[in-house]
Amino acid sequence: MKKTIATAALLALSATAVAAQGSDPDKLQADGGVKVPGWTGRIDPRPASQGRKITDAKFVPMGGGIHVTAGPAAIYWSAENSVDGGNYTVAATFSQTKASAHPEAYGLFLGGQNLEAPNQSYLYFVVRQDGKFLVNHRADDSTVHKIIDWTAHEAVKPMDEAGKATNALSIVVEGDKLSFRANGTEVASLPRATVDGGGENSGTKGIAGIRVNHNLDVHIDGFAVTKQ
Prior knowledge:
Blueprint: H1 7-22, E1 33-34, E2 39-43, E3 58-62, E4 65-69, E5 74-83, E6 88-96, E7 105-113, E8 121-128, E9 132-140, E10 143-152, E11 165-174, E12 177-182, E13 185-191, H2 192-196, E14 206-212, E15 217-227
Parallel strand pairs: 1-3
Antiparallel strand pairs: 2-5, 3-4, 4-15, 5-14, 6-11, 6-15, 7-8, 7-14, 8-9, 9-10, 11-12, 12-13
C-alpha cells in the first residue's frame, strides 16, 4: 500500500471520532466476546476505544448467520478466509437492525496481514445508515490511508423510518481491478496496482473479514470468500 495520507488529516480524523463518540460512549456488552467457532476479533485502535476489549462487543452465531452487537468498533476474521493471490470475491449481506446515534459503518475487509500486531494492515469497504460508502486502508495501529472518502451512492440503501437497512456488499478482485459493489452495483473501483503497491499481490493477499463500528447492531448473512 502507498502511504499517502497527511499527518494533519489523521489528526483531524481522530479528533472527529472522539467528538462524535463523546456524547455516545461505547455500549459495553455483557457476556460479550467472539463466539463464532474459528473466528477472532480485535478492537479498532482509535482513541475513543482506548482501554476497551474484544469482550466489550458481541459476535455470535444467530439464525444461520452472524450477529454483532457493538460496543467498540472492531474487526472480525477467521484464518480459514485467507487468500494467497489470484481472483476472488468477498461478500456478505449486512442488516442494520436499529438506528445508531450518529452514522456508523459496517462492511468488509481484505488483504489482512498481521491482524493482531501493531503493524496490522487491511483494506476496508464499509457503508453507513445515511447511504454513504467509504474505502480506506489501515496501514498500522496509528495510520489510516483515506482512499475514497464518504460518498453518497443510490445503490447504498439508507436506513428506513424504523432505523433498519440491508445492504449486500462485495469486493471483487479480478484481473487488474478491485470492484466495490453494493446490492449488485459497482459504486467504485481501484486499479489493483494501487492496492498492491507494486508488490506480488501484496495488498490483495491475506485474510478477509468483517468490520463493524461503534454501537451498531448488525446481522450478517452469507459471508464468503470465493475463488474465481
